Amino acid sequence: MATTNDLKNGMVLKLDGGQLWSVVEFQHVKPGKGGAFVRTKLKHVLSGKVVDKTFNAGTKVETATVDRRSMQFSYKDGADYVFMDTSTYDQLPINPETVGDAANYLLEGQDCTVAIYEENPLFVEMPAAVELVIEYTEPGVQGDRSTGGTKPAKLETGYEIGVPLFITTGEKIKVDTRSGEYLGRVNS
């Protein structure tokens, strides 16, 4: 148990009959009249739904102990993604719904963080940016510069993103895993 005064970003709370909510942001408010309160933005751990919730200051909230383990993606087994705990070398199969959008950027040997609660994987957290090779994109045309538009490019994971017109097949680029945006070339 904790109080609303102890809230931190990333903390996981058990609310509404055991549902897990992650604190995205919080703000302590002390109005001129009346009692202080805490305004929060909470994200449902399983569905990803974001809600605003207000608590009175000092209200007791139940916290959930979520274990964040450093893991490495090993291989795909049928529909499941198999991750290896980098400290114990234990294999952990995770279903595609739990992996979610992280699957768009996963390569064998990719390091990521897996959040586990009561031995059940909750979600897979990728690094903010990953380096991937362009598997295919239309060839650039003379005169295409970085100020122009974008064109679709298929990454080595099979995911498609928009890249500047001057990018060619076989180049290694940096991609933002939160938004799927092109961040730049990687010099080898």
From TrEMBL:
Keywords, ordered alphabetically: Cytoplasm, Elongation factor, Protein biosynthesis
Residue ranges constituting the Translation elongation factor P/YeiP central domain according to the UniProt record: 68-122
GO cellular component term, pick one: cytosol
Gene Ontology terms: biological process: peptide biosynthetic process
Pathway where it operates: Protein biosynthesis; polypeptide chain elongation
An annotated Gene Ontology molecular function: translation elongation factor activity
Major localisation: cytoplasm
Domain Elongation factor P C-terminal residues, every copy: 130-185
One Pfam match: EFP
InterPro entries xref list: Elong-fact-P_C, NA-bd_OB-fold, Rib_uL2_dom2, Transl_elong_fac_P/YeiP, Transl_elong_KOW-like, Transl_elong_P/YeiP_cen, Transl_elong_P/YeiP_CS, Transl_elongation_fac_P
SUPFAM superfamilies in alphabetical order: Nucleic acid-binding proteins (SSF50249), Translation proteins SH3-like domain (SSF50104)
Subcellular location: Cytoplasm
Family: Belongs to the elongation factor P family.
Role description: Involved in peptide bond synthesis. Stimulates efficient translation and peptide-bond synthesis on native or reconstituted 70S ribosomes in vitro. Probably functions indirectly by altering the affinity of the ribosome for aminoacyl-tRNA, thus increasing their reactivity as acceptors for peptidyl transferase.
Name of the molecule in the record: Elongation factor P
Gene (name only): efp
